[in-house]
Amino acid sequence: MELYQRILCPVDLNEISRPAFYHALKVSLCATGFPLRGPESRRPAMLEMLHCHNTRGGPAIARFPEVRRRLVEWGVLEPGSGPQQVRDLGLSIRKRWMNGEPGEQIVRETEERHCDLLVMASHARAGWSHLLSHSVSAPTLQACRLPGLLLPHDCDGFVHAQSGHLRLQRVLVPVADLPAAGPALSEAVRILATLEPSLGGLGGELMQVFVGPESAFPENDLPDPPVGWKWSRKTLPGRPVEALTRWSRQWQPQLVVMTSQGQRTWKDRCFGSTAERLLHDLGCPVLVVPN
């Protein structure tokens, strides 16, 4: 299985996008194999931070999140480390300031840089708030056609900001006949495999959840999870979004991975797709896999 290697993280230059930056940096660092691999055997990984705006004015690169400062706080680098020490980790860092509509620039950058993961903050709007102020993240992901890790604006996620430690032991994967869950099942294992150098071998649970009778549970080929992780399954009665939300508040997943067909109906366009509604209701990171 190919691990993530080229990560794009759009930033707003404010606190809302900070958790997304921490997750993008952590995924990028783990993608090199740090700390399990030595300097001579690390894989190269790229983290690009992109800021788009529609107003006049020059770039403000100094306002971008500080990678070296964060890596020092996480104990990865020594105080006073320079750019060469970051490169020695296997990390390539790019900071881009671009004029234009954010969605269009993000799509263009993912294509030109051959990115394989998009990590971004989301206002997680659903219901009437979505109708009044449409999401940027959902149509952008649909246009990019690559996995996107979305962080609700009020969510710290599974990467501890001060230490960089992972809090990841419960991953929820909703399954259904349509859209097919296979891509989400594979992507759940892919992100865990990428993060494996920092998981500490503690293991965890990958939970398939189906809303409907057990007899109709979709059967999928399950990819082998990292050491210590296991697949489980759960059936729930009721309507999909409400049932998943109600049960998840009890189980408290730290990550949801799901396949999405985007905004396909008038209801989706007005009130948000299933992925957007779950992002709003669950308040935890959602890894959306286009189908």
Distance between the termini: 19 Å
What is the averaged pLDDT score?
Answer: 86
User: Looking at CATH, which topology would you report?
Assistant: Rossmann fold
CATH-defined architecture: 3-Layer(aba) Sandwich
In this structure, how is the largest beta sheet organized? 10 strands, mixed
Number of strands: 10
Q: Proportion of β residues?
A: 15-25%
In percent, how helical is the residue content?
25-40%
CATH classification, class level: Alpha Beta
Number of domains: 1
Apparent shape? globular
Characterise the protein shown here.
The chain has 291 residues and is α/β, with parallel strands linked by helices. 33% of the residues lie in helices and 23% in strands. The chain has one domain: 3-Layer(aba) Sandwich (Rossmann fold). The protein has ten helices and ten strands. It has a ten-stranded mixed sheet with strand order 3-2-1-4-5-10-9-6-7-8, sandwiched between helices. Helix 7 links the parallel strand 6 and strand 7. The protein is globular, with a radius of gyration of 19 Å.
